[in-house]
Write a structure and sequence with these properties.
The structure is a homodimer.
Chain A (H helix, E strand, L loop, with lengths): L5 E6 L1 H4 L7 H9 L6 E7 L3 H14 L2 E5 L10 H9 L3 E3 L1 H13 L6 H4 L3 E3 L3 E3 L8 E6 L2 E6 L3 H19 L7 E8 L3 H11 L8 E7 L2 E8 L2 H18 L3 E4 L7 H11 L4 E5 L5 H7 L8 E7 L2 H8 L3 H7 L4 H15 L3 E7 L14 E7 L4 E7 L4 H20 L11
Parallel strand pairs in A: 1-2, 1-3, 3-8, 13-14, 13-15
Antiparallel strand pairs in A: 4-5, 6-7, 7-8, 9-11, 9-12, 10-11, 15-16, 16-17
């Protein structure tokens, strides 16, 4: 636990009526996190003086660090300085330092300060100001009820500079020597969030509590986070990671290092590494599979051709699926997807193939083949696998799920996985 | 002033630590606005039981309507039901209705409920539940301290359905008889939000103030809303709608009646009405165009085949683009997209075609053909049009923009538009 208890107060009509999506608080959270500081509470208010004063009074009693964002501008709805002066019981006076900043800001821009601008130099008496390298509004640093309050501009670029150049360095000085924070982010596919949690509880019950576990579903993948706070627990974690890999095996796509790790990215990386190309033969997913691969920069190195054969006629024309196969087994069958896969391989000269045919709905179902029935075939010219699923849900859910499983099955083929995914019963 | 004083409480570690940007509260604000309700305060908390209970107690005393968002899921960090039960001083019991919902939800997906899922049916005793048409978690409706509390899921798609189908209709009933409110929603494509606003101001300056104008960008379309509050202004609106249609002409896709009106839907409706089929020949968009059409239920009536010809070789093999054309003009040229379009028409026997070839980046640009260069060809066997664009932005933005323009150009071809879109300079 950090000795700092941070709360966040955002002010702005545009934030609360939904005209502007708040990204500042996520930014602040990410910046203070490495200091071991979590935000305990975040309050967003409209520009209303009474409400603002009241909330400042309450929050300054609940926490020992309060960052206020917004309301420092020149217009009449910018109320932070006034609210602070009343909450702190200090008169509003013209702050010489703030005035100097305003004048220098204006002269650099060959801009003449108007009355509204000058309001920005009128601050609670004897407060400290925080430098603002880019904007007109200075920040305010004041103490109310033993709570350190920092007021920052709502303009994201100004907030960022003020936070990184002024507030974070100040906070670092207040904190005891830094703890040893380390986060491992494992990307998984094929296990739902609650199922993943149960598996972890069941198989890894002895996991030390010093290794914090977190889950984040970001369909179709679920991220598993392991956070440690000391050197010792970090060492422990490396041991436990091996056990986690044994339990979850190839449901783990890999470790998320920077941004994200998606199924198409995994397939792409494997193809690139092995110098292979892939082709797609799609019926019910109608180009979605191909589009997931071609959405990646550099796709041309692994992808040359995709076939969207929505009708039976086109499965025959474009992929040479024998008419007899279609007549005898139907479009949604093991035999047809195998023929689609073979056709796509030979027509495209690709090394790897994935073929899909199914009933996305809402029509097209029969008694033998209910809505959501789908056949997949994947592999290369020597080995082709097939699998049948029934995926229930909307048309969109069906298409997305089939594409995700298709990509996962190709990924497992490419890494020569010997494990079976949980979604194959 | 509304008689309803609404506050919002969001819960989720991911919201407060910045992993997820909160878009739900903006959505809620926009949806309650037409009822004359503003959000007075918004509090965001981490998943901490004590803090949550405390805040529910405080907020339920400050307002008479509280919407809680998040914390209804199956995992151990979903604490809303427990916090409510303690704040309301009601025991947690298994809710038969919620259990029924869970079982029906699971059986539709052929999914076996686990212990974690079943937790979602354990709710404060005797609370009302709110239906959830798509997700596993039901909503909770409870009264604490004379405050109406609605608990909604954090998953945006589920929140939207629950809000629009359950909570808004409930709130409407609580409000005094509604004035004569009428909203016309026009869907537009090809004019940016601010440009649309400027055009409206310039050409329709005399529009009466009793006709309220609203804009909503939902890329790639922009919705233009015309709201009237009296019978008289409604009559006025019908006259002004004609003028708006004259000014914006075929940038208007149509009137949004229920859910949404998208470019693929417009193309689909036209094809269906005219009993025509379409085929796609894609290079740089890699299947995305085909997938937009096949995402629609009933796509098989208008779509049989799509060609994803990512390499030159495949443009030649699959679409019979002459090698000499590719050699002489390159893959990204008027001549190549025309040959792709002709090839796709003859190979698929479709009536209508759209062909695309461009440089999505980040590599592949030359001095003559900068990044973002794209050629489109569209039409039928008697008339093929071509157009060249340079679309600057990320790979994803490029692909989405090209797909949208391609669909819009096909739509304009099908409705025999005599107007030129603004995005063709």
């Amino acid at each position: 636990m950090s000795i700092i208890n941070l709360q966040l107060l955002l002010t702005g009509n545009e934030l609360i009526n939904g005209d502007v999506i708040d990204t500042n608080s996520a930014y602040i959270a990410k910046q203070v996190k490495p200091l071991g500081i979590d935000i305990a509470k975040r309050v967003t208010l409209a520009d209303n003086l009474t409400v603002l004063i009241n909330e400042i009074k309450i929050m300054s009693q609940q926490c020992n660090l309060l960052i206020i964002n917004g309301g420092l501008g020149p217009t009449s709805d910018d109320l932070t300085a006034e609210a602070l002066s009343i909450a702190a019981n200090l008169p509003l006076t013209e702050n010489p330092e703030a005035l100097l900043h305003l004048k220098s800001w204006a002269s650099k821009r060959m801009y003449t300060l108007d009355k509204a601008n000058l309001k920005q130099a009128v601050l609670p008496d004897k407060c400290n100001i925080i430098a603002n390298r880019t904007g007109s509004a200075v920040g305010i640093h004041i103490n109310i009820n033993d709570c350190d309050i920092f007021c920052t501009p709502g303009v994201p670029s100004e907030l960022k500079i003020m936070l990184n150049e002024e507030i974070i360095p100040y906070l670092k000085k207040q904190l005891p020597p830094q703890e040893f924070l380390h986060t491992t982010r494992l990307q998984t596919y094929g296990i739902g969030e609650s199922q993943l949690q149960m598996i972890m509880q069941e198989h890894l019950a002895a996991l030390p509590t010093t290794i914090e576990i977190g889950y984040r579903a970001n369909a179709p993948t679920v991220e598993l986070k392991l956070i440690t706070h000391t050197e010792a627990s970090y060492q422990l974690k490396t041991t436990w990671l091996k056990k986690i890999h044994q339990v979850l095996n190839d449901h783990i796509l890999g470790e998320i290092k920077t941004n994200d790790l998606t199924l198409p990215m995994c397939v792409y990386e494997q193809l690139l590494e092995k110098k292979l190309t892939i082709t797609t033969a799609e019926s019910c997913t109608g180009g979605l599979l191909a589009s997931k691969i071609t959405a990646l920069a550099g796709a041309s190195q692994v992808f040359e051709a995709g076939y969207v054969t929505y009708s039976n006629k086109m499965k025959n024309h474009m992929l040479s699926v024998p008419q007899t196969t279609l007549d005898k087994y139907g479009a949604v069958s093991k035999e047809t997807v195998l023929a689609m896969a073979k056709g796509a391989l030979s027509h495209s000269s690709a090394d790897i193939v994935i073929a899909v045919s199914g009933i996305a709905g809402p029509t097209g179902a029969t008694v033998e083949k209910p809505l959501g029935t789908v056949w997949l075939a994947w592999g290369d010219s020597t080995t082709l696998h097939t699998q049948h699923f029934v995926v229930k849900g909307t048309r969109l859910y069906f298409q997305k799920t089939v594409v995700a499983r298709g990509l996962d099955l190709v990924r497992r083929f490419l890494i020569k996985s010997s494990h079976s995914p949980l979604y194959i019963k």
